[in-house]
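INPUT
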Amino acid sequence: MIARTILVLASLAMAAPALAEPLIIEKQGSFFVGGRTVKSDTLSTLPAYAASGTITVDQMYVRYQVPVDPKKLPVTLIHGCCLTGKTWETTPDGRMGWDEYFVRKGHPTYVIDQVSRGRSAADPSVINSVKLGKTPLDKTPPIFAAGQEAAWAIFRFGSEYPKVHPGMLFPLEAQEEFWKQMVVDWAATLPTPNPTVPALSELAKKLDGTILISHSQSGIYPFQTAALDTKGIAGIISIEPGGCPAPTGDLKPYMNMPIMVLFGDYVDDAPRWAPRLKLCREFAEAMKKAGGKTELLVLPEIGIKGNSHMLMQDRNSLQIADLLIAWIEKNVAKK
Amino acid sequence: MIARTILVLASLAMAAPALAEPLIIEKQGSFFVGGRTVKSDTLSTLPAYAASGTITVDQMYVRYQVPVDPKKLPVTLIHGCCLTGKTWETTPDGRMGWDEYFVRKGHPTYVIDQVSRGRSAADPSVINSVKLGKTPLDKTPPIFAAGQEAAWAIFRFGSEYPKVHPGMLFPLEAQEEFWKQMVVDWAATLPTPNPTVPALSELAKKLDGTILISHSQSGIYPFQTAALDTKGIAGIISIEPGGCPAPTGDLKPYMNMPIMVLFGDYVDDAPRWAPRLKLCREFAEAMKKAGGKTELLVLPEIGIKGNSHMLMQDRNSLQIADLLIAWIEKNVAKK
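OUTPUT
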């Protein structure tokens, strides 16, 4: 275990100087997948903008960068609650995000904004309909913003605000920049599975093979995507998922797929997270018994301590990326 | 005039092969400027997320790319109504956006999401307060989505939906992808000037010299930014602005600054745009009389015909970018 950690640290040290070199991109850009049109009479309550008309919603914004002559599979980075694709970009304290690091390591990288979040449109028509008295007040969609004090414990910076877990690797000196990443979350206004899930399926098919890397609220999405259709999904990395598939449920969709479920530190002391880790352990056990290729990795159990829930932004974020890149190299079939 | 057009077309033809070459980036990333904390008891109406707490709003998301050893000034690309920074990325029909093209032409390029839009957080607390009966119904914030039928004329694809102006250069065959770019607009819920304006001022100072390139709803923002403080603003390019500064107002902030106001085609026949162009002409005249360096350019007047309101996505979008790059080269002082 410790040997593995040292190996990872050594590879990180070797990689470090290359990060200062210019980045060479074969192709970059952005597009949408999914989407459906909606007709409404309450798009607006302002005279300057028509109340009636058609809008498109449920599309998923995707931004991508492809390195020159990529030898590795594309990765798709899927953010969690109350956040956007910004999660994977420059860290709050100004270090390189996974969006660029995976490209530098040879993986075409696709960063999404969940449906109804960030650059993926939400639908305001019910809110306006309530305002105009056409819809009852209690039907106002349950949009929300996560308060920083409550989010503190959810992100496991400490057991409660403003306590800090000993050895915490999240760059809390830059927390102001982190809180700016949080946006209004419309997920509770959407059906289950979240329309992000079929959009991920469409993206996976379009890419003809991608590793879906999800986080927290979106942790379950790759599994739900595989349950729709396994086509295009080369593997799943679920980071600190809000839930894993039920161990007693239908495991077939995940059977021929390399899966990694990853957790950071301090989980056992977190009432929100300990039961989720337990369920994921049961899922991984059930998969193992059934002959699947699912690995559950809790970082402190291999000697990597101090990781928060936002481990892609923690001080050792590139060490963890290296660990995942090595896992992909070893476990996920090439194209 | 025609000679100038031919020159531009010729330079475009020469540049075209280079666009297929890999892009070399010295540095890329994202960050926020601005922002203030808000305490609220109505952040959420869901049991899973606390109602009380602190959020940060009014920050502006910025994504940037810097070419190797840049010899040219940074440009800041500011989108318009109901859109996000996606405006400047890959066009609906899959061509290179200005975000990458300006980088290839040597300009460090900063793309923002307006405050309360896209990846820049909005504040849902008043909506939730109304839902909980703590705030009267008529205080529901006037958020809106622009319907596609009404937007058709605003974007000047034609005089009315679904008529098409003859010679239209917007790639209407890809209009579905374009409509997906539109998001909920919270601008009418914000004070004047929009908090994006002080955030742009902070960004300009941080960059120590940038050309603010705005569009439509944000057309006036660079002027409002200069009225706050001219520091860091090397020049202004206002594309099809919703408004220009009043010609009878205080022109001092704009006096020592190269300014270009740009309009596309079909403006005279557009009831929404003709008066705006007229006001901008009056502003440019007043600036000229006062000795300022303000140019108003209406593309058909130099022989470039067929441009919609979304000219950064029209078929000749790179030709127009070349025209602006040449204007910057000639008119804006180097660092």
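end of record. The two ends of chain A are 30 Å apart (CA to CA).
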